[in-house]
Structures are given as structure tokens and as C-alpha cells.
Amino acid sequence: MTRRRLPYELVLPRRTFLRGLVGGTAVALALPVLEVMLHDDGTRHADGSPLPLRLMTWMWGNGCRLEHWVPKATGPDYELSPALKSLAPHKAEFSVLTGFKNPVAGRRGHHDGIAGLFSGYPFIALDPAGAPYASKFGGKSIDQQATDLIGASTMFKSLQIGVTKRHVTNQGPTLETMSHRGPGQPLPMERDPQALYDKLFGAFVPVPGTGNDTTSLRVATLDAVMKDAKRLHGLVSTTDRQRLEHHLDSLFDLQKQILAIPPQCDLPMKPGKLDYNADGSEPLAAINAVMSKLVAVAFACDLTRAVSYMFTAPSGGQQFDLLTPSQFPEFPGATDYSHADQHMVSHMVAPYEQEFIHRCAEFCMQNFATLLGELKAVPEGNATMLDNMCVLAGSDVCEGWSHSESDYPIIVAGRAGGRLKSGVGHYRSTEGASITDIGFACLKAVVPNPDALTEYGGEVEGFTGKTKTPCNVILE
Fold first, then answer.
1. Percent of the chain topping pLDDT 70
2. In this predicted model, what pLDDT tens digit does every residue of 285-338 receive, in sequence order?
3. What H or E segment, with its residue span, contains residue 159?
4. Residue 143 — φ and ψ, nearest 5°?
5. Which of 361, 207, 385 is nearest to 296 (CA)?
6. DSSP label at residue 414
7. Which CATH class is domain 53-191+264-464?
8. For site-directed labelling of 467, which of 195, 218, 262, 305 has its Cα 20 to 30 A away?
9. What are the domain boundaries of the chain?
């Protein structure tokens, strides 16, 4: 919907900051996209430049139960499967892709999957030094390939975010992070919401001094820039006023949410043993809610255009403390796995244990829905932030119990500014197409010149993920 600009309204450049003074020190806060920054048609900036496109990768560990994941029908009118039910509010914004195989499979399931899906390169095997296995990525991860083309002008070329702390640390960098600048160049993930908040907005607040803590300084900073925001109120449209207020309110809310999260336990995982220590559980949903909102704010303020986001870890020992035996009345006397190593449970093939794994995947999708809701709630021109993004979500294996790699659970969300098709719904590859074709399509969807990309992925040690055929099913 277009809107004629009123005579008294300003035309602001995209990189506009609210400014103020705190204790004599200048502070500034980045703004989201406002109408006053846009051309009258609402599809580009006032200077004619396009709205930014972004790429986000999102993963959960240990796969799913395919019988509960794969929808029965294909096309736009499919019915969501049990694992995907929580994504119903966003059904029009994503495509479910099934039947895709990993071309770099065959050596080590979890390692194969995360490398193949999130880079297109086979991993490079390392000396395990006593561990079960070890490897590193064979090339740049997809977010870093995108960053080289879309992230040069932002404050942060990319962000690496993790939610669970229960990740594998002794099998090389492949399982430690989704983001790699190249072989042997892993980019560590930030798993502390407060530290991420400080990273994103710390440059806009003065260093704490004697008698004044960081929290009070942040509040003082927001108060200071609020004065500048009020100055703008009379010069912008009603819609922009609401967006300014919402942006500042969101930052206040984030701070409250961060302070409300209980401290996380850093106890090391006990391989092969159940850990029933209640103090070791992680508030995964609470952390995800804050991280998701921080990602939305970072994108809205154009602080970055590429994010990798690990909700739960590949081959990881995350705990799902909400899944107590009381949640499984159909299995009387069931074992309590609510504080167990999920990876261990995933290899138990009895009906109850595999139902537990299915419920874990359901929980992961509930948290993915939280992220999509945050992205969808941010307006950008005539669309939403999610409309100007590509989100590639998947797991490190298909089904954890067997380390299968022939029918990956994959979701591609967003429209990438119209480059990704809407109305795909559920597409199932009947010929077992490569998961790297999906990565190739996602990369082409966000880069400035997609025609210049003629291939994706690479070859390592006799294995190849290289492709010249993007998944055109999802590309306009």
C-alpha cells in the first residue's frame, strides 16, 4: 500500500540514529525502517536503494520422527503434520521441503548433516585424539558466503547465536558452531542474552563509571534518546510515531526479559549417563524468546544482515525439562527423561523413547514459531521483515536413532523481497534431490546479483556437495 508523503514530513536517510547525552557523553541508538525513510511507493528507500535482504540459518539437533514430520499431502493446501502444528499462524510464510538427501553423507551422520546443509561442503576429518570422531567444515558456511556479498555495510557482518549450552566440545569445530569462515575458522556463538544485548547496543552507551551500573546507564540512554524521538514525533506520520514507540518499548522489554532469566548451568555433560540434577536444566524457551527479539531488532536497525542460530545442538545433550512422564499418560510408569541427554535418548528405539524425541522436535518448532512471529511483527515498507528475509531451518540428521540422511526435515521461510515463491506449501522430492540445491537457492535469494552465482558447495576428500542446480521449486 502506497502513501503520499505530507508536505511537512521529513525524508530521513536509512542510517539515522536517535541521539542524546548521558553524563556529558554522547549516545546514539539505531532506528528501524520508518515510512519517512522510504520512497512513496513503500518498496524502497527514499534515495531509491532497495530494502535490505537478509539470510538466517536456524537449526535444532538430533532430527525428528519422520512419520510425525512429513505432511501427508503436497502443495499449498496440505495439512500440517503433528510436528509442525505450532507453525500454523505462519503457514503462508514458509515452505516445507521433504525427500531431499545429503550428497556428502556416509562418514559420520551428525557431522555430515550440519556441514552439508549449512555449507554445501563435505567436512574435513580430523584426528579425534581419543574422541569418538572429529572434523571441521570443508568450506565457508552459507551465512558467511552471503555475508561476503550483503554484509559489508553493516556494523556486524554477521551474528552467531546459540541457545543451549549443552553442545559437543570434543569432536572438532563442526559440531560447535554453524558458522565458519572456512576450514579451521569457526565463528563462536554467543549464548548469553545479556552479552548479545551488550554487543548490539553497547556501542550506544557510555562505559559504566563509579557508582553507576550498566543497567541504570542503559535506562538513562533510552531516556536520553527518547527526547530525540519526541522531537521527531511532530515531523513524521502517525504510523512512524507508533513504530518509534514500539522500537523503544521493545528495548525496555528486552532488558526486563534478560534480567528475568535465571542463571544457566555450565555443568559439563556426563557422557552415557542420565543427569537428573534439576539445577542443570536450561530455560530454553525463555532464552529463545529474548534471542529472537534481539535478532529482530538487530535486523530492523540494519546492524547485520546474516545470522546463524543454533537452538539445540547437533548430537547435543540438551535437556527438555518440560517433558516429564506426566506429559506421556499413554506410557504409564515411563522413565523420566526430562533431565536426560537428548542425543542418548534419540538412539533408544522403543516406542516411548521415540515419542519423547518427537515431542522434542515439537518443542523446537514451537520456539521456531516464536522467531517467525518476531520477524513477521516488524513492518518494512509495504511488507514485513520476514518478507525481506530467507530463513533456512533444518537439523543435523533426519532421524536421530539411525543417523539417517535421506529425508531431511527442512523449512524455508520468508519471501526474500519476492525472490522466494509463496504458496509452495509442502514440496516432496520424489527423486531424492540434494539438500545443497536448497542452500544454493537460499543464497541466490538474498545476494545482489543472483545470476552471478553459478554453483554452490564444494569437494573434499572424494566427497562432493557441489551443485549448479538451485532448488527452483522455491525460487521465483
1. 73
2. 988 998 998 899 888 878 899 999 999 999 999 999 999 999 999 999 999 999
3. strand 159-162
4. -65, -35
5. 385
6. S
7. alpha beta
8. 305
9. 53-191+264-464
